[in-house]
Amino acid sequence: MKFESDKPIYLQIIDIVTEKILTGEWAIGEKILSVREFAASVEVNPNTVMRSYDKLQQDEIIFNKRGLGLFVAENAVEIILKEKKANFLQVEAPKFFQSAKLLNISIDELIELYKSN
């Protein structure tokens, strides 16, 4: 798998996992890939995946059933959406609107683009 160079790999793995949960590829209550399986699938060191999984457990997006593995938490989707929405509104949207202003793109043009997607 090809990773971006400007963002730590463990954060990119978190993005992959949360996307799988949001798209339903990994359903609520479903067992997810083990650290070794996931590491092999994305061709990274298992320690990197472990770091990602630890963060996801701290955020209560996944949980460990002792002896059985890791599973998607019941409220994972809500937690992910809340975090991603906050990040979008605080980080990404201001950059986007600053660029739109610099390029003299009107709000009407943005609304039309939004509606067409």
Summarize this structure briefly.
By secondary structure, this protein is mainly α.
Question: What does the model show?
Answer:
This protein has five helices and two strands. The longest helix is centred in the C-terminal third of the chain and has 27 residues, at 76-102. The protein has 117 residues and is mainly alpha-helical. The radius of gyration is 17 Å and the shape is elongated.
- Helix content range of the residues, please? 55-70%
Enumerate the strands of the largest sheet in spatial order, edge to edge or round the barrel: 1-2
Structure class: mainly alpha
Radius of gyration: 17 Å
What labels describe this entry?
mainly alpha, 7% strand, 5 helices
What's the SSE blueprint?
Layout: H1 9-22, H2 35-42, H3 46-58, E1 62-65, E2 69-72, H4 76-102, H5 107-116
Antiparallel strand pairs: 1-2
Helix pairs in contact: 1-3, 2-3
